[in-house]
C-alpha cells in the first residue's frame, strides 16, 4: 500500500475534529496509520461518553491495538490535530508508537513538548519521533472556530 503524505493523514484527522465539533466536543481528531493503512480513527468523545479519558488519541490507540492484536504499536504513526495532553502522551509512550505528528501546539496543557516534555523525556524507555506544525493553520482554525462559536453560547465544554 502506498504511503501518503503527512498532510493527507492530517486532513483525515481534521475531518474527525470537525465531527467532534458537530457533537459539541472539543474538536480534536486522531488517526493511527500502519503500513499506509488507517487502523484507528477517532474524535474527542468526553461529553458523549461522560468519560474524561475519551480523548481522540486514546480512542484511536485502542482501535489500533485491536486492529493489530497487540498493545505494542510499533511501526505505526499517530496523527493528531492538537498536541497530546499528558495522559495521551503517556499512552503514546506505553504503546511504543514510534512517530507522532501533530498540527497545533498546546502551550497551556501540552504533554508532548510544550509544557510537559513526556515524549522526549530522557528517563523513559521509549521516545517517539515528534513532527509538529503539520497543517498547523488549518488545525488552529478548527479549534478557534469552535471556541469562537462557544463563546456566543454559555454551555460549558472543557478538555
Task: Pick out its properties.
159 residues, alpha/beta, globular
Structural description of this entry:
The protein is an alpha/beta fold and 159 residues long. The protein contains five helices and five strands; from the N terminus they run αββααβαββα. It has a five-stranded mixed sheet. Helix 1 (6-22) packs parallel to helix 5. The longest helix has 17 residues, at 6-22. The relative contact order is 0.17.
| Percentage of residues assigned to helices | 25-40%
Which strands sit side by side, in order, in the main sheet? Answer: 2-1-3-4-5
> Main β-sheet, in a few words?
5 strands, mixed
Distance between the termini: 36 Å
Query: Would you tell me the structural class of the helices and strands?
Result: alpha/beta
Anisotropy-based shape: globular
CA radius of gyration: 15 Å
Mean pLDDT reading: 93
Beta-strand residue fraction = 15-25%
Number of strands: 5
The number of helical segments is: 5
Topology as H/E string? Answer: HEEHHEHEEH
Model regions low in confidence, pLDDT < 50 over at least 5 residues: 155-159
Gist of the model:
The protein is of the alpha/beta class and 159 residues long. It is 38% helix and 19% strand.
Sequence-ordered SSE layout with sheet pairings:
Elements (H helix, E strand, L loop, with lengths): L5 H17 L6 E6 L2 E7 L2 H4 L6 H13 L7 E7 L3 H10 L3 E6 L24 E4 L3 H16 L8
Parallel strand pairs: 3-4, 4-5
Antiparallel strand pairs: 1-2, 1-3
